[in-house]
Amino acid sequence: MVSNLKIGQHFKWLSLLLILVLAFQFFAFPPKAAKAEAMVDFTGRGYGHGVGLSMMSVYFMSKNDPTYSQEGGYQNIIHYFYKGVAIDGFDPTYSDDNQVLVEHPDGTMVWKTMRDYLQHLAEEPDSWPKEGLRTTMVTARTYGWYKYEQNGYIPKGGQAHNPSINPSTRPNIVQAIQDTSNQVIKYNGNIIVAAYSSSSGGYTARLEDIWSPNTFQYYPYAERVPSPWDAQGSHYNWTKSVPTSVIESNYPQIGSFKGLQVLSRSGYGDWGGRVLRIRILGSSQNIEISGWDLRTTLGLKSNLFTFSYNFSHTALYNILSSRGLAMGRAWDSGIGNWVYQASKMVVGDFNDDGLDDIAIMYNYGNSMSRLWVFTNNGSGGFNSPALWWSSTAGAWSQPNSKLAVGDFDGDGKDDILAFYGYESTRQTKAWVFTSSGTSFRSPTAWWDSGPNNWDWVGSKTEVGDFNGDGKDDILAFYGYSTTRQTKAWVFNSNGSRFNSPTKWWDSGSNNWDWAGSKVVVGNFDGSNGDDILVVYGYSTTRQTKAWVFTSRGNRFNFPAAWWSSGVNNWDWEGSKTEVGDFNGDGKSDLIIFYNYNGARTIGWLFKSNGLSMNYPVVHWDSGAGNWEWQRSLFVTGKFDTDNLTDVAALYNHGS
Questions:
Q1: Rounded to an integer, what distance in angstroms lies between the CA atom of residue 349 and that of residue 435?
Q2: Contact (CB, 8 A) for 334 and 654
Q3: Left if phi > 0, otherwise alpha if psi is -120 to 50, otherwise beta: which for 273?
Q4: Do strands 517-522 and 589-596 pair parallel, antiparallel, or not at all (unpaired)?
Q5: pTM above 0.70, yes or no
Q6: Would the pLDDT of 310 be above 80?
Q7: SS3 state at 456
C-alpha cells in the first residue's frame, strides 16, 4: 500500500508539474511571440508589368481626353502606346469567324471562333467608355492570335477568359467587337505582342525592363511612353511592408537579411524608373536578381518601387477623460518586439466585463496572422497582450482584412468582423470571429458576395446597430468610380449570419466623392438606431464638412451638414477621425486628431447637440515636438468606469 501511494503521489506531482510548465509557456511569453524583425517598406507605382497598354490610362483617355474619346479615338490610343504599328482589318488569317483552340480555366480544350472567344473575356467592365472598349478588343484580339500562333492554342491565364459569361448581358462589349471586327495590330506586316496591364504607374515599360533580354528579341513598337492618366485611378500608388523573414525564407542562401541594393533602373518613371537588377545582401552571401523576380516573389504590385527599412518599437498610450486627459504609457513592446506597420487595431469588450479591450490583428507575412488582445486591467490600463487566435501560414492575409467590432450574435461579448477581399476572384466575404471571453473562435463566413460581385477595394466598412434590434450590422460605404457615385449598403445581422445587403442610401451619379470620405458610425441624434457621419474633404477649396446620415430603421435620411470648416480652414488629409460619447449625454460626438507641423497633434472635439456639431474645442494637445501624427493609430473606447469615452493610441517609436 505504501508503495502504491508513493507511486500515485509521484504521478500526481508529475501531472501538476506538466500543467505548470504548459501554463508558463502559454501565458508568460505573449509579447515575445509577437516579436518581428525589421520590415522592408516598399512604396511603388502601378500594377502589373507595365508593357504596352496601361488600361488605367486607356480608361481615362477614352473618357476625358478629346483626342482619344472622339469617334475612332481608339486608333489614336493604340498608336500612342504601340509605336510605328498599323491596324489591319482585312487579313483573312485573322478573321473573327476563324476557329481557335482555347484552353479553358479548368484545362479543357475547346474550339471556338475568335468572336466567341472575345465575347467571353472579362478584361474590362461593360460600362467602360466606347473607345476604351474598342481599344481593349483590338488589343485582346491581337494578343489572342499571337498566343495561338505561338502555341497552337490560346493558353489559360494570359487573358481573363470566362466561358460562363453570357454575352447578352454585355451589349457594349459585343458592339465594340463588332465595331473593330477582324482588326489586329501589326508591325512590318507581322502581328505584334500586344501586351497590356492594369496600370503602368505613370510610364510604360519595354519588354526587357521586365523579363530577361534573352527571353524576347527587341520590339521597337513596345517603347517606353509617359502614361500620366494613370495618376487619376487606383493602383497608381501602393505600399507594402515585408518582414525580413519572408525574404530570408524565399532566398535561404543569403542567411540573415542585411539589406537591398539597387544596381540598375530603366531611367523612365519615378525614382529613376523600374528596378532592373537588385542585390540582396545577406550574412552568408549576396545574390543578384532582377527587379521583376523580387516583385513576383514578394508579391509587390510592380517593379517600379523604392524602399526603406523599419526597425520596430511600438507603445500603447491611453488618454483618460477621468484623469484630466493626461497621457499614460499602458504598454511598451521594447525594441525589436513589435512592428507598428504590421498592426491593425480595433476596440471592444471582448470578455463582457463592462470595460473595453484592445485587439490587434498582427501580420506575420506569408499570409499568416494572429489576434492579440490587451484586456482591460480595470483601472484604465491594459494587461500584456494574450494570443486569442492564430492562423497557419498561407491561411489568412491581414492586408486583405478590413476589421470592425460588434456584438453580432447578441451574447453580450463583442466579436470581430473581418471584411475579407479575394483579389483573384473579385470576391468579398464577411468572416466573424465570435468571442468566448478568453479567445476567439475560428472564423465563420456570415456572408459571401460570390465571384465578381463585390469590389473590396471600393468598400469602407463600419459596424453599428442601424435598425435598433440589439444586434450589430455591417455598413459598406461603396464607391462606384466610373459614375462618381456612392451607395450605403447595410447587412443586417440575424444572430448567425448577415442578410443580403440592402441599399439604404444612394448619392446618384456625380454627386459624391467616395475617395474624399472618412466614414464613422455613432448615435449622433440620440434616437434609436446608429447613424453615419462622413468627414468630407473639398480639395479645391481646402474645406471640410461633417455630413450626418441619420437612421430611420430601414434607410438613411438625406445627409445634412452638421459642421463646416469654411474655405481654407481645415486640412482633410491631416485628419484622423474617431467617435465616442465624451460628455455622457447619450449622443455620439466626433473627435478629429489633427496634424500640425513640428511634431504636434491636437484632438479637436465636436460635441453633438442632436441636430449639429458644436464648434470644435481642444480635447487633447500633445504640445510641439511631442507627437508625430503620421506615427499614430488612434482608437476610442470606455477604458475606465466613469462612463465617458477615452482615447488609446498605438505609436510607432521605430525608424
A1: 10
A2: no
A3: left
A4: unpaired
A5: no
A6: no
A7: helix
Q: Is the Cα torsion angle 300, 303, 309, 314 positive or negative in sign?
A: negative
Reference 194, options 164, 235, 234, 149; nearest CA is 149
Question: CB burial class (10 A; 0-12, 13-18, 19+) of residue 327?
Answer: middle
User: Which positions ≥6 away from 10 have C-beta within 8 Å?
Assistant: none
The C-alpha atoms of residue 577 and residue 587 are separated, in whole angstroms, by: 16
CA distance 138 to 60: 18
Closest-CA residue to 491 (of 517, 512, 465, 515): 465
pLDDT digits (tens, 9 = 90+) for 352-401: 999 999 999 999 999 999 999 999 998 888 999 999 999 999 999 999 99
Query: In the 3-class helix/strand/coil scheme, how is 593-625 assigned residue by residue?
Result: EEEECCCEEEEEEECECCCCECCCEEEEECCCC
d(CA 94, CA 141): 9
User: Which residues, in sequence order, are bridge partners of residue 648?
Assistant: 318, 635
Q: How many CA atoms lie within 13 A of 26 on its CB side?
A: 9
pLDDT of residue 21 exceeding 60: no
Q: Within a 10 A sphere around the Cβ of 582, how many other Cβ atoms?
A: 23
CA 209 and chain centroid, separation:
27
Q: How many CB atoms lie within 10 A of CB 227?
A: 26
Q: Which residues contact 70 (CB under 8 A, 6 or more apart)?
A: 131
DSSP for 2-18, written as a single string: HHHHHHHHHHHHHHHHH
Per-residue model confidence (pLDDT) at position 210: 85
Distances in Å between the alpha carbon of 86 and those of 80, 191, 196, 222? 12, 10, 17, 13
Separation of alpha carbons 412 and 406, rounded Å = 10
**Packing angle between helix 55-64 and helix 130-151, nearest 10 degrees?**
150
Rounded to the nearest 10 degrees, the angle between the axes of helix 171-179 and helix 130-151 is 70
Q: What is the pLDDT of residue 119?
A: 96
Pairing of strands 196-197, 53-54: parallel
Rounded to 5 degrees, φ, ψ at 468 are: 70, 25
**Which H or E run includes 126?**
none
pLDDT of residue 388: 98
Output the nine-digit C-alpha cell for 597: 507641423
- Residues 534-547 have pLDDT tens digits of 999 998 899 999 99
Calpha distance 530→547 (Å, rounded): 14
pLDDT of residue 35 exceeding 50: no
First to last CA, the chain: 67
Residue 422 CB neighbour total at 10 angstroms: 16
Among 9, 29, 32, which residue's Cα sits nearest to residue 21?
29
Of the candidates 530, 535, 518, the one whose C-alpha atom is nearest the C-alpha of residue 616 is 535
CA angle in degrees (0–180, nearest 5) for 389-390-396: 120
